[in-house]
Amino acid sequence: MICPSYESKGEWRVEGEGNSYAARYTTQSNISGFALLGECIAQKGSFIKEIELTG
Q1: Alpha helix stretches (DSSP H) within 1-55
Q2: Phi, psi of 6 (to 5 degrees)
Q3: How far is residue 40's CA from residue 38's CA, in Å, rounded to a whole number?
Q4: In whole angstroms, how far apart are CA 29 and each of 9, 10, 14, 23, 40?
Q5: Sheet holding 20-27, edge to edge
Q6: Alpha carbons 5 and 18: distance in angstroms, whole number
Q7: Which residues pair with 26 in a beta bridge?
Q8: Which residues lie across from 17 on neighbouring strands?
Q9: What is the rounded distance in angstroms from the CA atom of residue 29 to the CA atom of residue 40?
Q10: Computed from CA positions of residues 55, 12, 14, 28, in that sequence, does the dihedral angle turn out positive or negative?
Q11: CA proximity to 51, closest of 24, 19, 28, 20
Q12: Over the stretch 3-52, which tens digit does the pLDDT of each residue have?
């Protein structure tokens, strides 16, 4: 999990089912945080790259 800044004004977008979920916190077109559960944890590297590209 990477937490967004308290000052960020955005929204969480959650995808998944069962015990596997991926949530992105986006502000405008930038991802500034995420949380991963279950099988979605394997996507951690791509989420980190996404933050690096948009942050």
Answers
A1: 44-54
A2: -60, -25
A3: 5
A4: 12, 10, 16, 15, 22
A5: 11-17, 20-27, 30-37
A6: 28
A7: 11, 31
A8: 20
A9: 22
A10: negative
A11: 24
A12: 887 777 899 999 999 999 999 999 887 888 999 999 999 999 999 998 87
DSSP-derived letter for residue 28 is T
- Report d(CA 41, CA 10) in Å as an integer: 22
Sign of the C-alpha dihedral computed for residues 48, 28, 38 and 43 taken in this order: negative
What global pTM score does this model have?
0.81
Return the number of other C-beta atoms located less than 10 Å from residue 32's C-beta: 18
Chain CA centroid to CA 20, Å: 13
pLDDT of residue 55: 61
For residue 17, report the phi and psi dihedrals to the nearest 5 degrees: -160, 165
Measured distance CA(4)–CA(19) in Å, rounded = 23
